[in-house]
Structure formats: C-alpha cells, structure tokens
Please model this.
Amino acid sequence: MTIREIGCCGAYCKTCIEYQKKKYPNQTGCLGCKLGYDTGERDLDKAKCEIKICCFKEKNYETCVDCPNYPCKILEKHWSKKGWKYQQTKKQLEFIINNGYENFIKISDNWNGPRGKLFL
Ligand code: SF4
Ligand code: SF4
Model:
C-alpha cells in the first residue's frame, strides 16, 4: 500500500490482475509501472511507455499529478485513445489532485483491478 504502486498515468498496479501474475526474473505477467527498479530487478532504460519515461525516468515523479506541466500533450494523447480505461485513469489522476494520494490508496486497495470506483 504505497504510492509506488500507483502507475504514473493513475492506474493502480497493486490490484491489477496482470500484476498479481508477475514473476521475477523471467518477467511473466505485468511487473507494474514503477516497481522493481529500486532493487535492480528491472532496468528503467528498457521502459517503453512514453508517460513512464517522462514522469518516472526523466522527472522522477510518482505520478503525473506531481508535474507542473500537467496535463500535457503526452497525457492528452493517452486520454484520447478509444476505451473506457483511458478516461478512467484521467479521473483517477483528478481524484488524486482533489483528495491526495493517501485517500486514493484507501479506496483503490479494495478494487479488483487497476481502475475502480472513486468514492471516499
Ligand atoms: S500505461 Fe504507462 S504510465 Fe500507465 S501504468 Fe502502464 S507503464 Fe505506467
Ligand atoms: S510532462 Fe506530461 S507525461 Fe511528463 S510528467 Fe508531466 S504530466 Fe506526466
């Protein structure tokens, strides 16, 4: 239950089914957005996600809400993709802006996936 378990884009890795399947070091399942880099299990230079590279690798933020450029063109592009999940991660970042990381973790720990209901 830490901020590290929140993806830069607002997805919550800890409760994601793909993250539950993760296995080091053969890397099956999803390894989470920001996890495993501190311990040397993963190499941040191999990151492919544009959001993660900008937010976590280059700027060393936990999520994009920490960034003075929020919301930027990279995020606008992400949010414009087809699918509920992209809009939902936008709402999750907005929830963090309005209510803080602690309250986000409090509600998201009960989810069954990386996105969920936003009620305190
Ligand atoms: S889409 Fe990118 S920023 Fe979002 S959780 Fe996945 S790797 Fe992280
Ligand atoms: S510039 Fe955009 S993608 Fe990069 S950290 Fe800031 S808000 Fe996130």
User: Anything to note?
Assistant: Residues 84-108 form the longest helix (25 residues).
